[in-house]
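Minutes, project check-in

Agenda point 3 was the complex the collaborators sent over. CS summarized: two entities, 807 residues total, and the question is how they sit relative to each other. Sequences were read into the notes so everyone works from the same version.
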Amino acid sequence: MSAQGRFNIVRWMLVAMFVVAATAAFAQNAPKDNTSQGLDEQVQDIKSDVLSIGAELNQLEEKLLYPSGTQVAIFVSVAKGDTMRLDAVRLQIDGRLVAHHIYSAKELEALRKGGVQRIYIGNVTTGDHQLEVLMDGKADSGADFSRTEHFTVRKEVKPKMVGLTLAGPGSSATPIALGEW
Amino acid sequence: MRVSRPFIALGLALGLAALPAAASDLKDLYFGEALYHALQGQYFEALQRLDTELAMYRGIDQPELDTLHYHINNAEFSVGDFELNYRMHQRAGRAIKAVLEGNVDEPVRNEAAFRLARIHFQKGQFDDAQLALGRIQGVVPDSIKDDIEYLRANIDMATGKPAEAVAVLQQIRNNPGLAGFVAYNLGIALLQSGHQQDAIEQLDKAGRLTPADPASLAIRDKTNLVLGTILFESANFERARQILDRVRLEGPFSNQALLRAGWSETQSKHYDSALVPWNILVNREPTDSAVQEAMLAVPHAYASLNLHGRAAITYGRALELYSSQIEKIDASMDSIRKGLFLKALVREESREDETWVIRLRSLPDAPETYYLMELMASHDFQTALHNYLDLEDLRSKLTEWKTSLDAFDDIIRLRAENYDPLLPGVDASFKELDARMRLRLEQRKQLARRLQAMLTAPRPEFLATSEERLALDRIALAEKQIGDSNSPESLGLRQRAARLRGAITWRLETEYNDRLTAAHAHLKELNTQVDELTGQYEAFVRSRQAATHSYVGYDKQIEQLRKRVGDALENVDSLMDRQGQMIETVAINRLDSRRERLTAQQTEARFGVADSYDRAAREQVGSEEH
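CS then shared the predicted structure for the full assembly.
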């Protein structure tokens, strides 16, 4: 390899490094060609379209499968600052198992950061219903724990939303607190 | 991918800043559900939920009574954030502009302006980004103050105003979260503004930082690599080598640093010293361009040391490597042309974590992705790739929805088969019961009206028992039969009848209050029963309506949705074809250029082998002559 050749490579590398250096600062501003830009916009358009189809389909599904007169939705959240490892939640309505969810690390993280999971949506008649909530998990100490609570939930004509806030044994909060909407 | 990390990290931090601290602060469960999806990276689901919630919120008469009202600013922001994360920049920009133009507090407006500026910057619209930053006035949330300045500096650098960028970056150089990036960019800005010596000093400082996180360590390595290259370019070879030695051996910039460290040594004629980094390098991943370069550099160093035999052997090794790599590239190009690259990209297991691009290599029939790493790290390729993957997700969703629509059709058909024969009979019975119930309710109303009237205009006879009414009727009949004769017998009978009437009237008058109270009590008792009956009646009406609503009136909507799903699916397929073709073409072009480089190196190695053998032979002859 000639010295000139090596020098050219070094020069090329230097230029490349400045491009890299610049892209570190301007990670997103590489010039785009028209084709990719046009395609990108079309992809954005189709996403919008599919989102709107999805929204309409959700409404249709709700109307068909969970009419407002009988609809009940149950949500799960984790108490503020709680660090227990929630493994599973099981729900029974009037003695019938309606939901059994085992949590992945990603889901648990989302709950800890303030997300709320809709664990169940279904239908019940108007009137009082017995809700049994069972949670399994691991306390901060690493010990397994399990808690069960029973609640009476009153379903009226409008859709019923029930929020369950869960807390581990190390927390001062109620292990399973019920909120109604 | 590596180069965009600082921005990815920044974006996430900002996105999460908008979330409510925990579920206990949350008033709207569905907003919480949208966050739950977003926090798992499921932005489509998050957007679908939040779009529906926001549409409902905007559609109600008194939105302040809705639970979303407590989070409305946050929700408007989040929708923009989710759109941005779902790579829908157009809509994200619109959502954030809506916040900017809404009636919101200064800190909220300023944060929106910052986010809008960031979107424009990411899209390369620097003037618009500048304008958006110009809208920031008054109170700025502390959490984004330095991020705003960092963005301002980046815009200055992108628009050819490095001197302004230097001034801005110097103000935020003490931010621990941005330290490595600010220090590096400050060095680059100084260099761009013509202050080479200051730039070298600044990059030297940046290259000595001792961060702990992998991203900051990587930027430090990059700083040292850039600085080493600048010093090499300035013929300061000894210092260049010292700086390049700072780059971690296990870091992402290690190969390039080793290669350049070797070149720095050769400039000072220290060929034996150059062999130290290069011999490390030649044992590394053979697809790396620095390793391939070093395969030629090593025999060159041996030749310069007059070790022509060693040079010939190492040129021979280089030749072998180039041949095998050319074969590998040919196989990769072939694999891409067969569509296997796209297939590998969309495989679920290849997308589970951050290292999926690397793991693609281990998939059977997948092309050699190492050659595509740099390409895959570029923003345009990332956009194209994400678009392709998003389109694939949309395709699965649409296909699933198609099945759902078929299932809805089935549900409706089965419900119709069940209800159609039943409902006419149910309706007929209900009509009869309804008539009877209305009559009874009317009677009850009349009774209530009468009792109410009797409070002010007493009518004791209305409260007579049936026995008393019968007795009064019989007395009236007897009086009629007696007639109005004046015979003593008739007079006697009339007096007896009058006494009897008087006795009943006396009872009615004296017991009037008690009877009226009892009548009210009875009516009240009846109210409970009537309420219960009304409840049952309404429940029946609701159930009856629900029965009809469960299968009537959906045909048109389902048909329209089926058409929209079909059209969208067609559109997605066509876009996927085009996007896929683009990815394949770019990948093949990249491999082609690597192949060209390898072919040139192969030729150079061939020449090197021959030349080294000649020299070795001449040397041998020379030594024999002496």
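Noted in discussion: Residues 3-64 of chain A form one domain.
Follow-up: revisit at the next meeting once the mutant set is ready.
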